[in-house]
C-alpha cells in the first residue's frame, strides 16, 4: 500500500508556496501526478484565489444540534480532517474490530490539489428567530438575507444551509471523499441540506474553460495575481471584525435550458452573450483578450455589444466598478422530466444540467447583489437560464495551525 | 481558436496503435495532454478492451420511429459523429443564420481518449411483440432477456433501452458533449431512456482503482493484453453471424448503502469482500497480486476466504471457469431520500451513490448470467448493494471506414 504521502516532494516546503501558485494567471490548471498540494492553514482559506481545480463538490448542511460546543467541536474536527486530507493521507489504523476511521476510497490517491473552503450561512447566527448558539450579535452585516431576484425559482431543498463547504480537486473521487468524510464527522450535529458536484475543462494551460453553452466563461475574471485587487474586491478588510481576511461566497445552481439554447442561431447566441462563440472575442473584435468596447456602434448607430447582452450587464463599467471573483463549475444531474419552453414545447426526459455558479467577494451588497440585480432584470440570457437554489455564506479567514476555521467567531 | 486537431501529433499514424495500447496492463491510465486518441474504426469497437478512461457517460435510448431507414440513418449519423469526435474536432461552420452544428463545449479540448461504444437492446429487434424494423429474425440468441436475479430491484425508468452508448474519456466535459451530440442527432428518432455518469480514479499507473466502498476493484480482471483470452471470453466468434467481432455489454447501476457499509467493522468488511482493504491482497496474503487460494483453511479448519465472500463467488474457479471483462465506474447522483437499513434506521437526505457496473463478454449466458446468478443469492455484499436498473446490449463489431456501426445487421 502506498500512502498519499509517497507522492509528496517536501510538503512542508511547498506549503509556503501556495501564495505563489495562487498568483498564477486564472484558468484551469492541468491535473498531473506531481502537482503540489495546498496547505489548509494560512491567512486566507484555500480554494478562493487558488487556481481552479477540475472538479468541485459543494455541500450545504443544516445544523441539528442546540449546543454551541457541538458546533465548535464539529468545526475543529472538520478543520483537522481538511488539513489531513489536503496534505495526503496515512494509512488508517486498521483495528479490525472497529469500523475503519476513513472510508478508504481516496487511499493511495494523490491529493489532487484538494482544497476545502468553509462558509457560514445566516442560520448559524439566527434561525426561525432563534439565537441557537448565542452568535446572533456577531452576525456580520454583510451576511445579508439575499433578496429575491427577478426570475428566481429557488427550490427550498436546494437553497440555504447553516454551514457549507466547497471541496475542489483535480480528481472527482478525492472531492467526493472529502465531503463524505465531513458528513460522517457531522453525525448527530449537522446533516446534508443540498449538494452539487461540478466539473470544468480547460484546453491548454491558461485557456478559459467553456461552459455547457459552448462559450468561454470567465474571460473577464479579475486576475488573482493582483494582490492589491484581491484585497480590494475579495478579502474582507478591517471593517469585518472576526471576518477580516475572509470572503463571502455566493453559490447558486443555475439550470440552463440546453435544448432551447442549441436551437438558437449562432448570431443570436453571440448577441446574447456579447462575444463570439469560437474565439471568445467581444463582438466586433477578433481576440478573446481584446477589451470590451461598450461604446462601439455599428453603421446604423446601434451598439455592437447589445444593451441587454450578458457581457455588458456584467461588466464593471456597467456596475460602477463592481467586481466579483467567479469560480464556477458546470453540472450535470442526469435526466429529469422537462417541459421545453420553446416550440414545439416538447416534454420528456432530458439532461438536467447547468452551471454551479460560485463567486467570492468582500461584500455581497457591493458584489453579487449589485451586479446581479440588474442582470436578473435585463440579461437576454435569462431566456435560457434559471437560478434554482443556492445561498450566501460567510467564509472566515484561514485557520492558523492548531486552531480551527472560524474559531474567532466562537471567542468572545 | 485552436481546434482540437492542434493537439494531434499524427493522428493517422496513431490510429493503428490502438491495439498496442489496448494490450497494456488493465488499469486506469493517467490523463495527459499528449495522450493519443483512438480511431473509431476497426475490427472491434473501441471502449471495450481500451484501457479504462477516467470518466464515463452511459446513455440508453428508446427508439420512437417506426421506420427502419430512420434507425439505420441514425446509426450512420452517430458513427460519423463518433468518428469525428474521437479524432478531434474542427471548428464549426459558423453560419450566423443557423444554429451551430455543434454545441461547442468541447471546442479546443483534447479528445481525451474519447471512445463511444454502441449497443443494441432487445427492443431494436422486438418490442411489445412488434417487429418494428423487420429485424426480429436477426436477433442473436445470446441477446436474451436477462432473467430476474435474486435481490433485483430494477426501476423501469433506469432499465432497458433499444440503443445504448458508453462514452468514455479522461475529461468529463468531452464525454458529456459526446452524448449530448448523439441526443441532438436522434431528434425525432430516439430519446433518452436512462443515463448515468461515472468516474474512476487510479493512483500510480497500473494501480487498481478503489471503488466507493474503499476496496480495490478489478484486481482479477482478465488481462486485455492476452489477445487469445479476449477472443475466448470477450469477442463473439464465428457463432455470432453479424455479431462476429462484437461483444455483449451488461450495464447495471448498483446502489451502495455507504452509510451502512461505513459502520461495519474492518474485519467484517474484509470478510465480505474476501480481501484486505488497504493492500487489496486476498485474506491471509500480503500482496494484491497474490493468487486467490480458495482451499486455504485456518487453524479451526474454516476457509480463510469465507464461503460467501464476494471474491470467492466471483472467481472463475467457483464458476466453471467463467470470466467477464469488467469496466466499472463509480457514480454519485447527489442527495436522495434514503431510509437506512441499519440501526438506528435513520431516514433523510443522503448521498445516492454506487457503482455503474459495466462488463463485456462473448455470451452473457456463460458470462454475467452464469456468474451473477450465484452471487445474487449468496454474496455477503448483497447486504450493502442493490441492483437498481440496467440492461443487456449487443455491441456489434467495429465499423470499417465508410460504413456505420451495426451495418451488417441491416444488410440482408
Features:
globular; 19% strand; six-stranded antiparallel β-sheet; four-stranded antiparallel β-sheet; 412 residues
Helix content of chain A: 10-25%
| Element pattern of chain A in H and E | HHEHEEHEHEHHHEEEHEEH
Summed up, the helix count of chain A is 10
CA-atom Rg of chain A in angstroms: 22 Å
- The count of β-strands of chain A is 10
Largest sheet of chain A: 6 strands, antiparallel
Task: Name the shape of chain A in a single word.
Answer: globular
- As a percent range, the share of strand residues of chain A is 15-25%
Count the domains of chain A. Answer: 1
SS-derived structural category of chain A: alpha+beta
What is the assembly state of the chains in this entry?
homodimer
Largest interface: A-B, 75 and 75 residues
Mean pLDDT of chain A: 89
Question: What's the N-to-C terminus distance of chain A?
Answer: 46 Å
> Poorly predicted ranges of chain A (pLDDT <50, ≥5 residues)?
1-36
Q: Would you kindly provide a written description of the structure presented here, covering whatever features stand out?
A:
Chain A has one domain (39-90, 102-410). The first copy, chain A, has ten helices and ten strands. The first copy, chain A, has helices at residues 11-15, 18-22, 68-87, 172-185, 227-233, 258-261, 266-273, 310-314, 368-378, 407-410, and strands spanning 55-63, 115-120, 163-169, 190-199, 247-256, 325-326, 329-339, 347-361, 385-387, 391-395. In chain A, the strands form two sheets. In chain A, strands 5, 6, 7, 8, 9 and 10 form a six-stranded antiparallel β-sheet that branches. In chain A, strands 2-3-1-4 form a four-stranded antiparallel β-sheet, with helices on one face. In chain A, α3 runs antiparallel to α4 (172-185). The interface between A and B is large, with 75 and 75 residues.
